[in-house]
């Protein structure tokens, strides 16, 4: 029926699969009981339908998890392989600069911390903002990346380092010894040159 309506409204026949993206707000009670889910821009949907969509491979569903009592957004993931739209913007705004330790380049790409091929979910917790160079370098077999959005760890050439997103405005950043930071920066750049 939707294909017929689309064809009549646009004057063009729908011949192939339609690329559908759904933002589905899921309270915990939707997963465990009969609390309805919410589709952004549409309204409530029955819990059984929300559970079916959340596990479907047919529809690109961005699952937005909400806290039961307040409805606050507490998590977001997508069944899509790539970071797009609101999820990509959220990661870019959170990280502001490249998450590779001591690379302060602007974020140009958003990608997984644990790669999608190794089972990393397309979620805010597994997303990081990177400059283009660092995003390509992390695919090198001797370059290991792990952790989550709170703290990302990088190991290469026997050296390890970690990074955190910048502190929110109004909160002081964590203090680090300038001498230690300079030494680690020199070691880090040396290790990257020799790979």
TrEMBL record:
Record keyword Nuclease present: yes
UniProt keywords, alphabetically: Endonuclease, Hydrolase, Nuclease
InterPro entries: HNH_nuc
Region (Disordered): 154-179
GO-annotated molecular function: endonuclease activity
Biased composition (Pro residues): 165-176
Domain of life (superkingdom): Bacteria
Coiled coil segments of this chain: none
Domain HNH nuclease: 86-136
Protein's UniProt keywords contain Coiled coil: no
Protein's name according to its UniProt entry: HNH endonuclease
């Amino acid at each position: 029926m939707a294909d017929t309506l689309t064809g009549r409204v646009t004057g063009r026949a729908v011949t192939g699969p339609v690329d559908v993206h759904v933002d589905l707000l899921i309270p915990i009670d939707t997963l465990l009981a009969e609390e309805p889910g919410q589709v952004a821009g549409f309204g409530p949907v029955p819990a059984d339908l929300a559970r079916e969509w959340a596990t479907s491979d047919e529809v690109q569903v961005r699952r937005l998890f909400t806290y039961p009592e307040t409805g606050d957004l507490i998590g977001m993931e997508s069944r899509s392989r790539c970071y797009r739209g609101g999820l990509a913007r959220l990661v870019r705004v959170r990280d502001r600069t490249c998450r590779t330790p001591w690379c302060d380049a602007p974020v140009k790409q958003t990608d997984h911390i644990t790669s999608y091929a190794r089972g990393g979910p397309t979620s805010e917790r597994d997303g990081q903002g990177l400059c283009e160079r660092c995003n390509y370098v992390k695919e090198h077999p001797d370059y290991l990346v792990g952790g989550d959005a709170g703290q990302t760890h990088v190991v290469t050439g026997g050296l390890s380092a970690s990074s955190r997103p910048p502190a929110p405005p109004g909160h002081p950043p964590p203090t680090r010894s300038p001498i230690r930071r300079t030494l680690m920066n020199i070691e880090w750049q040396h290790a990257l040159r020799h790979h």
